[in-house]
Amino acid sequence: TDLYTHPDYYNVDDLLTDEQKLVREAARAWVKKEVSPIIDEHYEKATFPKHLIKGLGEIGAFGPYIPEQYGGPGLDQISYGLIMQELERCDSGLRSTASVQSSLVMYPIWKYGSEEQRMKYLPKLATGEFMGCFGLTEPDHGSNPGGMITNFKDAGDHVILNGAKMWISNAPFADIAVVWAKNEEGRIHGLIVERGMEGFTTPETHGKLSLRASATGELVFDNVKVPKENILPGRSGLGAPLSCLDSARFGIAWGALGAAMDCYDQALRYSKERVQFGVPIGAFQLTQKKLAEMITEITKAQLLLLRLGQLRDAGKATSAQISMAKRNSCEIALNIAREARQIHGGMGITSEYSIMRHMANLESVVTYEGTHDIHLLITGMDVTGFSAFTREM
Ligand code: TGC
Ligand code: FAD
């Protein structure tokens, strides 16, 4: 095939199963055919390519690990990671749509939903017939979601939901929203809010200079009547949404590495073709230093993610291990995007190359699902036993 070959300096592919490689090839072929030719246009116009939803479902990008009995592909965690890597090698916004649907909508319904909720929503979410979003962040509560003020009150067979969520991926077109809100005792619960419920609106967020091919919006709840049967019964407390973040952060860690690989590949190719002072710029030591550092970081991250995938499949990955991988992938991807941009000189700022788009996208990726500094504090707490998230003032 004329499919791209990704960097694999330590033969990590030898450690993958045939099924994992097939899943990756299917995602890669689909992205190349359907997305690569149109992504720049959507990025520039700041539109989400909705017509891709069906194809995303077909390659298994929606809930890759959701069991077949609920309409999912029933794949393992490494396959999930590889699909996210292929999507984000093209565009972080494309991967975002799949991450949210998989880990922030399907995962909580699968893990904490009733059997009726699973049967009602999961098969349609797996195909993309239903699209979902996840409302945790609020205007005044981003890194500190435990402080949320969105709340619901008991009203017989339903509850009344009030409040607002901000920065919600997929919100403008989602059919359902998994929303985290406090009950009258201040305990956090997940509720499935459906488009069309009176008092529920999803205004789009404009002016984003990052993740432009992904639709972002608010969720506004003005006395929304939500039937009690839409409350996720399986788990309450902040740990419930945070466990969904574990799943999403796992996928993002693989995804951001995909963006890094794309930047590296382009920089390597350009460094062999672009001639200055009579020689390819790749013959200069300073260019080689950049490329050598890039492939070193990519290789380290590939090994870290493979091991994390094995741990996750065995049910042994800790939240702190996932957090470290998310932070590391985002950090190295951003550094690699910046260095790749330098190697391209002026050409690097144009849309002829995807580098500047990746760089701008990665500014969202390093911020959402826990900022770089929040993840540093998670590792810091894990190794010292001291929480440094709050301090007396
Ligand atoms: P803390 O007191 O540490 O914990 C509260 C309870 O939660 C438990 N817990 C976890 N459970 C499961 N998984 C995890 N990762 C967990 N982390 C903590 C913890 O054991 C405790 O349980 P219990 O039973 O004792 O109550 O909570 P804290 O308020 O101090 O906050 C900790 C902190 C700062 C790490 C957390 O709030 C955090 O991760 N903040 C970052 C917020 C964040 O990541 N938001 C993401 C929003 S969604 C998003 O960005 C989607 S973008 C998707 C896209 O487009 O791709
Ligand atoms: P803040 O929490 O206000 O942080 C500002 C700065 O303060 C950061 O540098 C941060 O690291 C630092 N800081 C905060 N607390 C501490 C501390 N204790 N110690 C040291 N430094 C600290 N959310 C959802 O719920 N669903 C979504 O689908 C979703 N999609 C998103 C899509 C995009 C494009 C973006 C940009 C965001 C999205 N988010 C979503 C929200 C995202 O999770 C938050 O932006 C993120 O958690 C950070 O919150 P904040 O923006 O309020 O920043």
Automatic annotation (TrEMBL):
What are the residue boundaries of the Acyl-CoA oxidase/dehydrogenase middle domain, all occurrences included?
A: 133-224
Pathway per its UniProt entry is: Amino-acid metabolism; lysine degradation; Amino-acid metabolism; tryptophan metabolism
Which GO molecular-function terms appear in the entry? fatty-acyl-CoA binding; flavin adenine dinucleotide binding; glutaryl-CoA dehydrogenase activity
Top-rank lineage group of the source organism: Bacteria
UniProt cross-references to PROSITE patterns, sorted A to Z: ACYL_COA_DH_2
**Protein name, please?**
glutaryl-CoA dehydrogenase (ETF)
Q: Entry's Gene3D superfamilies?
A: Acyl-CoA dehydrogenase/oxidase, N-terminal domain (1.10.540.10), Butyryl-CoA Dehydrogenase, subunit A, domain 2 (2.40.110.10), Butyryl-CoA Dehydrogenase, subunit A, domain 3 (1.20.140.10)
SUPFAM superfamilies noted in UniProt: Acyl-CoA dehydrogenase C-terminal domain-like (SSF47203), Acyl-CoA dehydrogenase NM domain-like (SSF56645)
Question: Which keywords accompany this UniProt record?
Answer: FAD, Flavoprotein, Oxidoreductase, Transit peptide
Signal peptide range equals: none
Q: Which InterPro entries match?
A: Acyl-CoA_DH_CS (IPR006089), Acyl-CoA_Oxase/DH_mid-dom (IPR006091), Acyl-CoA_Oxase/DH_mid-dom_sf (IPR046373), AcylCo_DH-like_C (IPR036250), AcylCo_DH/oxidase_C (IPR009075), AcylCoA_DH/ox_N (IPR013786), AcylCoA_DH/ox_N_sf (IPR037069), AcylCoA_DH/oxidase_NM_dom_sf (IPR009100)
The cofactors it requires, by name, are: FAD
Per the similarity annotation, which family is this?
A: Belongs to the acyl-CoA dehydrogenase family.
Q: What class of enzyme is it?
A: oxidoreductase
Q: Which PANTHER family match?
A: GLUTARYL-COA DEHYDROGENASE, MITOCHONDRIAL
Catalyzed reactions per annotation: glutaryl-CoA + oxidized [electron-transfer flavoprotein] + 2 H(+) = (2E)-butenoyl-CoA + reduced [electron-transfer flavoprotein] + CO2
**EC number from the UniProt entry:** 1.3.8.6
Single GO BP term: fatty-acyl-CoA biosynthetic process
**Could you tell me which residue ranges the Acyl-CoA dehydrogenase/oxidase C-terminal domain spans?**
236-381
What are the residue boundaries of the Acyl-CoA dehydrogenase/oxidase N-terminal domain, all occurrences included? Answer: 17-129
